[in-house]
Write a structure and sequence with these properties.
Number of strands: 0
CATH architecture of one domain: Alpha Horseshoe
Shape: globular
Distance between the termini: 27 Å
CATH class of one domain: Mainly Alpha
Radius of gyration: 25 Å
Oligomer: single chain
Low-confidence stretches: 1-38
């Protein structure tokens, strides 16, 4: 199992998220740093009966009828996104990528002087890690919008999104100075953009400007109390840079600055886990869940730390709460399956298999999902099925050390000791990072070496 942590260090600036369809497919984003998670467009189409009608036609599959209604609406609302771009946003919300891209290409052909289709294409390219293509598209959008003297709200939003996109491209290239320049340009237009301020803090840190980074991070948290405090964010950045000593110093400062902030305690628990201090991780996880017992993040970290400590009953308790709160959360379901599989009662092992099967159906190409399924099958004595799933898991992207151990355990039990030994000696097992079955893997390898 790769223990997956809950809190992300940075707030994304590019609005290219895919979301679910509502009564009217959502497509709203007013600023680059404060994005609706379902948003792909600069502004919402106006809430009118025509939009309701267009959405109804869209959901029925009448795309020509949808376009016709939106064209009529665009004549009444000149600052509305072009109809094909609105439809592209709705296709994305429905996870119909090919139709979305086709709609955007039609928008480029029909309204080449409108920048929004280029912006959405840039967002999609960035999501697919096509950095060069994204950079070219964002540059085009910015050149189309930067000289506008009195931009409409939509054009202003698009310009800000282009700057955010250019900053993201620069970061991907580790061109920190360019990223700083784009973010400062964005903040000149929108000084209260907390997400951009936090991102600027990271960029300054990467240029070894720690004092300025801390200042910008503090400004961000003053604007948005939902952000992790500046000291904890700086601790995470130091950890990522390999500066463990400074990370520890800043994590202590984070707790001093905000002792009753559950987000800080979650971050402290994660950091403690990463450096192998499990007693400390448990202490911080307990503090987090005490401060906010209803928080999904707190329940997940409490359950995950208990799982790593093989306190399976406690792990089950908190991970069940997390799963009930967020049934589609991969980490909650996956770790709950592992907590159940680790226990002796057959009823719990069978329940573990049910949860693992759910994740494997939803994420058939994710190594961790198949790994957990294989382990749940092994714990029920179904070795053929366990081996088949684990063999596939090790071929997928970034299999965890636990996955190699699970397969080695299956092969060992089937008498194929040399194959098991080879798996336990593979490069993936030489990591210094903690993982669930480290002690068991080391013990099995020692037994095989004798």
């Amino acid at each position: 199992m790769r223990v997956r942590m809950v809190h992300r260090v940075m707030v994304g600036l590019v609005a290219a998220a895919l979301g679910g369809m509502g009564a009217i497919p959502q497509a709203a984003s007013q600023t680059a740093g404060k994005t609706n998670p379902n948003a792909v467009l600069s502004v919402e189409p106006p809430a009118t009966s025509e939009v309701e009608q267009a959405a109804k036609l869209f959901r029925s599959g009448d795309y020509e009828g949808t376009k016709k209604v939106l064209l009529g609406l665009a004549q009444k609302h000149p600052d509305m996104p072009p109809p094909e771009v609105v439809m592209a946003g709705w296709f994305l919300a429905a996870n119909q990528m090919a139709l979305a891209r086709a709609a955007l290409e039609r928008a480029v052909a029909s309204v080449p002087n409108d920048p929004e289709a280029y912006q959405v294409l840039g967002d999609l390219a960035m999501r697919n890690r096509q950095t060069t293509e994204a950079g070219v598209l964002f540059e085009k959008v910015y050149s189309m919008t930067r000289s506008l003297k009195d931009p409409s709200p939509r054009m202003l939003s698009i310009r800000r999104r282009a700057l955010a996109g250019l900053a993201a491209v620069a970061e991907e290239r580790q061109d920190w100075a360019s990223a700083q320049s784009h973010l400062e340009a964005l903040l000149a237009e929108e000084p209260k953009n907390a997400g951009a301020l936090q991102q600027l803090g990271r960029v300054l840190f990467m240029q070894k400007k720690e004092d300025l980074a801390l200042q910008r991070l503090r400004e961000a948290t003053k604007l948005d109390e939902n952000l992790l405090n500046a000291e904890a964010t700086l601790a995470q950045l130091c950890q990522q840079a390999g500066d463990i000593k400074s990370a520890g110093k800043w994590m202590v400062e984070a707790i001093k600055a905000s002792p009753r902030d559950p987000k800080v305690r979650v971050a402290a628990a994660q950091w403690s886990y990463q450096i192998g201090k499990l007693d400390q991780a448990e202490e911080q996880a307990k503090a987090a869940v005490t401060l906010d017992p209803d928080s999904l993040a707190c329940q997940l970290i409490r359950g995950t730390v208990a799982l790593v400590r093989k306190d399976y009953a406690t792990a089950q308790q908190f991970l069940e709460k997390a799963h009930l709160q967020a049934p589609t959360d991969f980490n909650a379901t996956n770790n709950l399956a592992l907590a159940l599989a680790g226990q002796e009662e057959e009823s719990k092992r069978r329940l573990a298999l049910e949860y693992a099967q759910i994740n494997a159906r939803v994420y058939p190409d994710q190594s961790d999902a198949l790994s957990t399924l294989g382990w749940a099958l092994y714990r029920l004595g179904r070795l053929d099925e366990a081996e088949a799933n684990l063999r596939r898991a090790v071929t997928l992207l970034r299999p965890s050390p636990d996955t190699f151990y699970y397969l080695a355990r299956v092969l060992f039990d089937r008498g194929r000791k040399e194959d098991a030994k080879m798996l336990l000696q593979s490069p993936a097992m030489k990591t210094s990072a903690p993982y669930l079955m480290r002690k068991e893997a080391e013990a099995l390898l020692e037994e095989l070496a004798r």
